[in-house]
Amino acid sequence: MNLVRQNADDAVINNPAIPNHQNEEAINAISGGIMGGLQQQAQGGNLGDLLGMVMGQGGQAGVQSSPVTQGVQQNVQQSLIERLGISPQTAMSVAGAVVPMILGKLMQKSQDPNDPSVDGNIIMGQATGRQGVDWMGMAGSAMRDGRLDMNDLMQAAGGLFGGGGNRQQGGGLGGMLGGLFGGK
Residue 182: exposed, middle, or buried by beta-carbon count in 10 A (0-12, 13-18, 19+)? Predict the structure, then answer.
């Protein structure tokens, strides 16, 4: 919420399409839309992309072009339309300006060891509903090739979901992640 508040000047506060009396509601809609969008992405098939973003794969350009960012933008647009009653064009403009910037800053902060304000494990925990898991440690140890893919996730988190990291098992992590990644 603080990142949105600190970076919403041009897109929200100084936007004539959003009346001043709705600025706080717009900030709340954006904040809620971002968190809800991250949850949808984690649970709807982009868990690997989200974890890769949190770990800094692709840098700022990766955040800008990520399917996670695009999905979160759509969620924020919908939230703005529903909560403020603004036009789809205005909502698209606001979401397009704010979401990539906020996600970029959020991911940058999550990777900065000198900035304890944002923790990648907390982002992943809130997005997946699995708090208290060392997502960063698991993913970091699994990324032998420098990229995070289905096999890496299976290996790293198998025990977390009861799959033991074995792709042959139909349940556990394999079953869950198989659904998230299109049944691989």
Answer: exposed
Q: How far apart are CA 28 and CA 36, in angstroms?
A: 12
CB 46 within 8 A of CB 149: no
d(CA 43, CA 178) in angstroms, rounded, equals 12
Residues 6+ apart with CB under 8 A from 41: 47, 49, 50, 67, 68, 71, 72, 127
Is there a contact between 98 and 77 (Cβ–Cβ < 8 Å)?
Answer: no
- For 58-90, the three-class secondary structure string (H helix, E strand, C coil) is CHHHHHHHCHHHHHHHHHHHHHHHHHHCCCHHH
Find, among 5, 7, 1, 76, the residue nearest to 40 by Cα. Answer: 76
Burial, 8: exposed, middle or buried (Cβ in 10 Å; 0-12, 13-18, 19+)?
buried
Reported as a single tens digit per residue, the pLDDT across 63-109 is 888 999 999 999 999 999 999 999 999 999 999 999 999 999 888 88
C-alpha 154/C-alpha 10 separation (Å) is 42
Tally of CB atoms within 10 A around 98: 25
Query: Which residues, including other chains, have CB under 8 Å from residue 14's CB and lie 6 or more apart?
Result: none
CB atoms within 10 A of CB 67: 13
